[in-house]
């Protein structure tokens, strides 16, 4: 990620909300501590440093995952990085059960180019990105194919973790071809058109009426 943000490593920032104290340690973890005199006050991990959130060539946040268990899943936290006069944890919420949202203010992200992804990549990965841009411009790959290449680049750079696909998604991929390039789309369309012609001929031979739909 952005090298200038590594100066936050080894530091921790606190925020007290109601009866809870939240602590964010960049590149390490997020913890929650109940502020009470009860003997069994809650204290736990809301997430461990995992990967970046990337949107439109920009680092938009940090994902802390695999925290303490919560019902059937692990607690996780997304830390939003916003421009501020000083380094401080400014806001904490829980938009959905066991998924937390933190807002961290820092002057380190105030420059408009401070969170760009491209400059943090190696020359080899930058070339790979340039090639993907050219292929997209020349309409040799689809937008879906372009996004897939970018995801592979980010994973190779260690910015994103390579996530295991769900079993259901794997099965659907086996059935449905991925149309990553215009050439693949055209080839698949041609094959399907030929199959439809054959099926129509078979139906005609057997005297079965065929009703096509307007969206074919």
Automatic annotation (TrEMBL):
Keywords: Disulfide bond, Glycoprotein, Golgi apparatus, Secreted, Signal, Transferase. One of its GO terms (molecular function) is transferase activity. GO terms for cellular component: extracellular region; Golgi apparatus. It is found in: Golgi apparatus; Secreted. InterPro entries: DMAP1-bd (IPR010506), Gtb1-like (IPR039794), Man6P_isomerase_rcpt-bd_dom_sf (IPR009011), MRH_dom (IPR044865), OS9-like_dom (IPR012913). SUPFAM superfamilies: Mannose 6-phosphate receptor domain. Non-catalytic subunit of the N-acetylglucosamine-1-phosphotransferase complex, an enzyme that catalyzes the formation of mannose 6-phosphate (M6P) markers on high mannose type oligosaccharides in the Golgi apparatus. Binds and presents the high mannose glycans of the acceptor to the catalytic alpha and beta subunits (GNPTAB). Enhances the rate of N-acetylglucosamine-1-phosphate transfer to the oligosaccharides of acid hydrolase acceptors. PANTHER family: N-ACETYLGLUCOSAMINE-1-PHOSPHOTRANSFERASE SUBUNIT GAMMA, N-LINKED OLIGOSACCHARIDE PROCESSING. This is N-acetylglucosamine-1-phosphotransferase subunit gamma. It comes from Origma solitaria. The lineage of its organism: Eukaryota, Metazoa, Chordata, Craniata, Vertebrata.
């Amino acid at each position: 990620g952005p090298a200038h943000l590594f100066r936050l490593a080894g530091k921790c920032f606190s925020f007290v909300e109601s009866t809870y104290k939240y602590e964010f340690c960049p590149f390490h973890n997020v913890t929650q501590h109940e502020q009470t005199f009860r003997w069994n006050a809650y204290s736990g991990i809301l997430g461990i440093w995992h990967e970046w959130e990337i949107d439109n060539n920009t680092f938009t946040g940090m994902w802390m995952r695999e925290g303490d268990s919560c019902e059937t899943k692990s607690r996780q936290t997304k830390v939003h990085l916003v421009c501020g006069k000083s380094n401080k944890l400014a806001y904490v919420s829980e938009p959905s059960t066991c998924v937390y949202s933190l807002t961290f203010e820092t002057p380190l992200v105030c420059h408009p180019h401070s969170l760009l992804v491209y400059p943090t990549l190696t020359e080899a990965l930058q070339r790979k990105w340039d090639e993907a841009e050219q292929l997209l411009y020349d309409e040799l790959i689809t937008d879906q194919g372009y996004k897939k290449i970018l995801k592979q680049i980010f994973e190779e750079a260690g910015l994103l973790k390579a996530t295991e696909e769900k079993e259901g998604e794997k099965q659907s991929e086996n059935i449905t071809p991925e149309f990553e390039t215009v050439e693949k789309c055209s080839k698949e369309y041609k094959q399907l058109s030929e199959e439809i012609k054959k099926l129509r001929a078979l139906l005609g031979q057997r005297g079965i009426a065929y009703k096509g739909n307007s969206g074919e």
